[in-house]
Specification:
The chain is of the alpha+beta class and about 140 residues long. The protein has a single domain, classed as Heat Shock Protein 90. The chain has 4 helices and 5 strands. The chain has helices spanning about 15-25, 30-50, 85-95, 110-115, and strands at about 1-5, 60-70, 70-80, 120-125, 130-135. Helix 1 runs antiparallel to helix 2 (about 30-50), helix 2 (about 30-50) runs antiparallel to helix 4 (about 110-115) and helix 3 packs across helix 4 (about 110-115). The longest helix has 22 residues, at about 30-50. The protein starts with a strand and ends with a strand.
Length: about 140
Amino acid sequence: MRELTLTADLENLQRIRDFVSEAAHAGGLSDRACYNLQLAVDEIATNIISYGYAGAPLSAHITVRAELLDSAVRITLEDKGTPFDPRSKVTDGLNTIAEPLDERAIGGLGIVLALSGVDQFEYKRINDTNVNVFAMRKS
């Protein structure tokens, strides 16, 4: 298992992307699967930093773990920000798709698109920690 802990700062998103990309390629995922996994993790990490830690001190952190399993690559994001289950935005995002562009509510659609690209997504709140788990099966 590989692990990376960074301050919850938008400037660290590229390091998270690189970490996920390296793990996905090391785990034998296709370029397409690697991209989809990276996109999903990036979307949720951006939301954690932008909303879960809004106004938080510089001591706020995100931990990223990569597990290379026999049949899949699993990425886990952990943070101690505001409790937030990204799946709660999926319904909101799907409801706005049918609306005219200028009448759509802001937010939610990025999460829908990102999570639809991974094979599995789970969210848990364990004690005071948000745990987001993404998995992509190997081809």
